[in-house]
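Consider the record:
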Amino acid sequence: MKFREITDDDIPALFTVRVATHENALSREELTAMGITNESVKEKLSKTFHGWLCEVNHQVVGFAIGDKATGELWVIAVLPEHIGKGIGSRLLTLVENWLCENGCSRLWLTTDVDTNLKAYSFYRRHGWIDDQIKDNLRYMAKIIPPNC
């Protein structure tokens, strides 16, 4: 298992992972309709977004990206067959630490409103709390101490 920062060359593999997830599943077409394309991800990564990925046998099996301008955990995705191996936890920690190092003390994310999904319990186990439900999305937050 190898964790490293995302580069522009990794973007196609990120989409392969993202569309393979079981929870909060989105197709490539749905992502495109939301404005999430190879080009938009590349642009975000060149500005205030940054992320890490995990490779197993040179295959991307998970990734996470945050936005230091807003403190958002923008996306975290792990291939279903690699869930439960600590990959998501390590990726989450990498993004949280980076956001903290960049001055973000209140982190936030959106997820499905269904509390029975694994994503919800995953975030709760890592110290995230419910903030609000708006537009059929659950907003969660995490307060980070100033010294990270």
Remarks:
- Strands lie at 2-5, 49-56, 59-67, 72-78, 106-111, 129-134, 137-143.
- Helices lie at 11-20, 28-33, 38-45, 87-101, 118-125.
- Residues 2-105 form a domain with the Aminopeptidase fold (CATH 3.40.630.30).
- The CA atoms of residues 68 and 99 lie 6 Å apart.
